[in-house]
Amino acid sequence: MAMDDEKQTQILDSVGTGDVSSADGDSPLPVMAMTPMQYRKLIWKLDVRLLPPLFALWFVSLIDRINIGSAKIFGLEKDLHMNPKGNDFNIALIIVIIGLITMEVPSNYLLKKTSPSIVLASQSFLLAIFTIGQGVITNFTGLKAMRFFIGVCEAGLIPGSVYLLAQYYPRYELQWRLSMLMVGNAVSTAFGGLLALAIAGIKSSNEYHPWRWIFIIEGCMTVGVTALVFPFMSDWPQSAKWLTAEEKAVLADRIKQHGIVGKMDTLNSKSLKRILFDWKIYVVGAIACCTTVTVYSVAIFAPTIIKQFEPTSSARHVQALVIPIFVAATAGCLAAAYASDKLKHRASFALFGYVLIIIGASILINQQHVSTKVKYGSLYFMAVGGYISLPMLWTMLVNNISGSYKIGYAIAMEVGLGNFGGIASALVFQGKQAPKFETGYKTILGMSVAAAVLVIIYTAALMMENKARTAGKRDYRLSDPEVDNLGDDHPSFRYGY
């Protein structure tokens, strides 16, 4: 039965907030009853419409960010007169992260005020242009400029995607979807390695060495992919014509059943304070920072690290050894995501990832006592551990934040703080520390231990707060004149861990 226009409008306004009440606030709007099979079909409908375009953008964008790792072993430093024993390469890495950190919060604010599809596609297109630019520059100064704008243009993709999906999916459907996008990173790293192997054989008449063609070809590929997927990208649920009002009501009701009941649709001084001073955002941001040290280190420095294991190996052989590491990371990421959503639990899986990282880093700290094969295997531990833990953190925050403004800020801030880990990885894997990179591995070990401790503290704090709310110790907030704008401070909101 079709709903009248007024009720459809009310439901559209409620999506993403968990509020499916009627206009008078007393009686709920009718929600279409669904069998488990019908509900799974609805979630599948979301998957088909939302994930492929975002996956494609994640796939090409990460290639454009980390392909400098492959370019390095194919002559980048020599042609641009960079000092291989100095900090030039690390500076090029840090500049990207500065661009990322600068623009992540502004990008999510722009998404909130405009169209996610236009913002994300435009950023991807500009990212491709600057990637191509890396292939034609002639000096280190030009490389630094291109790298900064690559960071600026890629800044919105991860927080924007998490923000968008959090408005569609119920709490315990989200981990698998975010991990699917994280898989886009792992697959792109492996594919980028394969592509670099193919490009390495290019002999051009204009004396362009293979590293230039890595940037040019992969940048052109990003232009093509962006143009292909843009017509299929989606905006906010309120404007999703491919969902009926009844389907939107079911999703909003399921979100409410999972404990996401608070709204924060008005941005005023009180709500801004709740956003800016929420401890959860900064604790999870700190954990993300500790985690991205490993993710960045393995993604960018794996070819360099493997080259130190086997100094006589060719660049193509080294690149071939990188690929299966990220195939394993893909499998581990998806397996953990599936189990996490089924068990409705996150923290233990994140902790398991840190255990794997700690094992891998410990092996490499003592690498003089183990064989080359064991050292190579340790990279699998670190890659799988990082790819399990990082997407868990995204969900551990977005599941515990309510209100569209707050979600947008929280995710952008988490990813932005997390990118400081990329700066740390660039600083501790310097050419002068080769071949052992002992400082780098000790940093990964220390950061992973710190992350595990913070996850335990974060989880314990959420458990205690849930108990306090169940005992009615937060019911005094119901007398707040802005009770409908409390977000996750609402006494009925329940945290997930």
TrEMBL record:
Q: Which residues form the Major facilitator superfamily (MFS) profile domain?
A: 50-467
Q: Which residues form a coiled coil?
A: none
Key words of the record = Membrane, Transmembrane, Transmembrane helix, Transport
**Would you tell me the Gene Ontology cellular component terms?**
membrane
The molecular function terms in GO held by this entry are: transmembrane transporter activity
Write out the transmembrane intervals: 50-69, 89-111, 118-140, 146-166, 178-201, 213-233, 281-306, 318-340, 347-365, 377-397, 409-429, 441-464
Q: Where in the cell is it found?
A: Membrane
Per the UniProt entry, the signal peptide is: none
Q: Does the keyword Transcription regulation apply?
A: no
Q: Entry's InterPro entries?
A: MFS, MFS_dom, MFS_trans_sf
Report the protein name in the record.
MFS general substrate transporter
